Amino acid sequence: MTINEDSTGRIELVSTQNIETSRLYNDDLAPVPLAGRTWHTYNYAALWMSIAHGIPTYYLASGLIDMGMSWVQAVGIIGLGNLIVMIPLLLNSHAGAKYGIPFPIIARAAFGIRGANVPAIIRALSACGWFGIQTWVGGQAIFTLSSVFFGSWWSEATPIGGHPWTMWVSFGIFWLIQMGLVLRGIESIRTLENWAAPLILVVAFILMIWVMNLAGDLGTVLTPHSTLGWGPEFWTIFPGALMGMIAFYATMSVNISDFTRFARSQKAHIVGQSVGLTPTVVVFTTIGALTTAATVEVWGRPIWDPVELVGMIPNAVVVFFSLLCVIVATVAVNVAANTVGPAYDFSNAFPRFVSFKMGGLITGVIAILMQPWNLMASSNLYIFVWLGITGAFLGSVGGILVTEYWINRKRYLNVEELYQYGGRYTYTRGFNWRALTAMAVALVLSVGGAYSDPATGGPFPEHGLIPVLKPLFDLNWAVAFLTGLLVHLLLSKAFPPASFALDEADRATGQPGTGAIQVPGMQEPAARYSAPNSPKSADTEV
Q1: Pick from 301, 320, 245: nearest CA to 278
Q2: Cα–Cα nearest to 524, from 377, 448, 407, 424
Q3: Which of 47, 89, 224, 364 has the largest count of CB atoms under 10 Å?
Q4: What whole-number distance in Å separates Cα of residue 436 and Cα of residue 518?
Q5: Buried b (16+ CB within 10 A) or exposed e, 13-39
Q6: How many CB atoms lie within 10 A of CB 232?
Q7: DSSP bridge partners of 159
Q8: 3-state SS record for 202-255
Q9: How far from 295 is each of 228, 281, 301, 308, 312, CA to CA, in Å?
Q10: How many Å apart are CA 261 and CA 263, to the nearest integer?
């Protein structure tokens, strides 16, 4: 394997000829050459501004207020959650920028060339759910916009499955718009992000000014009102709410290398993401929180759905402009955040049969099957069930990836062998039992105690699936992340794979290993990976 390294520490393969015939390779999963890594700081800032300005982000603050928090409490929890999630986000960004490879390929280092399909599919299914949620929001925007012009025959059409048939048509139209963009490829997504980012912010300002004007007394709106107060009721739901805010971006913290693989430097994505994420989320959710708080003063109840609120504006021109912005911005958010990752993940599972574009289409189909209209049925279901469960699954993956790349491998990856059977990342028949065991332990501890409050409803028993683990469910993401990180680290130290010795040899000589690749059984060849006078790894035994 011959590599080039530039002055910023980015590495590229001089030639991919040795891996192009592998069943683990396709053009969409291939390492990006240095010449193709063109994303600047602004591209990453615009990416996160666009994602952070999405309607589901607005739901975070308005949903917390809907549960009785003040706008100060809601924004504070969201800001804290974003600061915490920046840690795994930036840690898992590094490998993509250094080697130009996407998340499912990086996951092969930790989970094995076959085992990587487990976290990749979990992450893909999570994104499918998010894609469905965003598509439902976009469909609502088209439905509401069309109602302004078509009148009651559209808005009050015969219901099917609890919604007017015209709502289902709107949902389908929005789905087709996004699929068309996916088929145009990754660069069209970057272009859309660059100019669509501020649109939803404009809509949010319009809503805030309009509702606050109706409320009249700004002092009343700005004064934090909480039915929970700062007592036991607030602190009871605080952990679960915080984990939900972290889980909101847990998906991107796992697969962020799908984007950083295009970075011009490590600095470009670090600065762009730091500027684009947390400050934008705090500003945007503050607007959403104040608007929702004002709706309580005007209508006596919190209206947490901004699309519903836009439809109440008594000016057709303003409604048209606002909903058009919602539609465009939601497309930009959804395609970037929720189709790029799973498209690569599905492609990784079947590299010879599924391209990036085909993976995007699969994402769109699964998103419909996950019934997003039910996921959005209530703020409690959205935050504590959907965000909580997905956050736990992805938290475990994030912790394992951090351990493998930063501690076990010390930021060194042999790129060629990530695409080949029989190399150091084959472990035992393609699976690294250490990472898979760590994930299983993390999921039992973080999700095993899943429970639902009878007062608000939910799919879990009141006392938890495993009652003794119920307290851990309120800290699901943190429990999953830390358990995955620590258990994988302990197992890797107690039972080190033989490939660690080869990494050390590569670092010592400055040259990657060039031993023969052995395919039969996909088993690590003991002679190649066992360093002299070192104990033979269990991975080398049949």
Answers
A1: 245
A2: 424
A3: 47
A4: 24
A5: beebebbeebebbbebbbbbebeebeb
A6: 8
A7: 164
A8: HHHHHHHHHHHHHHCCHHHHHCCCCCCCCCHHHHHHHHHHHHHHHHHCHHHHHH
A9: 18, 21, 6, 12, 12
A10: 6
216: left (phi over 0), alpha (psi -120 to 50) or beta: left
Token duo for residue 326:
């919602």
> Is the pTM here over 0.90, yes or no?
no
* Exposure string for 478-487, b = 16+ CB within 10 A, e = fewer: bbbbbbbbeb
Q: In terms of Cα–Cα distance, which of 57, 116, 50, 205 is closest to 397?
A: 116
Over residues 142-153, the pLDDT tens digits come to 898 888 788 888
Name the helix (H) or strand (E) containing 57.
helix 55-66
Give the long-range contacts of residues 463-466, CB within 8 A, separation 24 or more: none
119: enclosing H helix or E strand: helix 117-150
pLDDT, residue 355, reads 78
The Cβ of residue 195 has, within 10 Å, a number of other Cβ atoms equal to 12
Question: What are 118's strand-pairing partners?
Answer: none
What one-character-per-residue DSSP string does 132-168 give? HHHHHHHHHHHHHHHHHHHTHHHHTPPEETTEEHHHH
Looking at the DSSP assignment, which residues form a beta bridge with residue 13? 3
Between CA 292 and CA 214, with CA 201 as vertex, the angle to 5 degrees is: 40
Sign of the torsion angle spanned by Cα atoms 513, 516, 519, 522: negative
Give the whole-angstrom CA distance, residue 422 versus residue 433.
16
How many angstroms separate the CA atoms of 417 and 425, rounded?
A: 7
